[in-house]
Amino acid sequence: MAVQGLSHITFVVRDIERMAMFLCEGLGATEVYDSRAIKFSLSREKFFVLGGLWLAAMEGEPPAERSYRHLALKVDDSELPGFESRLRAIGADMRPPRPRVEGEGQSLYFYDFDNHLFELHTGTLEERLARYTHE
Question: Global pTM?
């Protein structure tokens, strides 16, 4: 018996169409399902595929407050400026980066329209562990 990996991540959002725009235009996701008026789950939902991940958005009451709890997605370092431009163009709220040590990769932090924090990160776990063991 073993966990095989990540199945999906669900975001609860006020405006499911706005989240679709955020994921598709801002991050390059592909929408693969829209329940429309049919409720198989708790509310209307849409499914997306982003970098091989299944993301779900459900209409409802999103988090009332922002926190550092976030979803980090892996990208190439050379792609960070392009993502930043796309995200600014759709009105994503960009957040200043946290202090970094050399060798742990670069990050771009931003909020969606419902207080969910995202990170685009260029490093790997192996790189981070190697860097932290040399401190």
Answer: 0.90
Q: Tell me, what DSSP letter sits at residue 36?
A: T
The CATH number linked to 43 is 3.10.180.10
Alpha-helical segments (H) within the chain: 16-21, 27, 80-89, 125-133
Structural domains in the chain (count):
1
Specify whether the CB–CB gap between 10 and 56 falls below 8 A.
yes
Relative to beta strand 9-13, strand 53-59 is parallel
Sign of CA dihedral 47, 76, 92, 97: positive
Looking at this protein, which amino acid is placed at residue 90? I
The series of mean pLDDT values per 10 residues for the chain, 135 residues long, is 89 97 98 90 94 96 95 94 97 89 86 97 88 73
Active-site residue list: 45
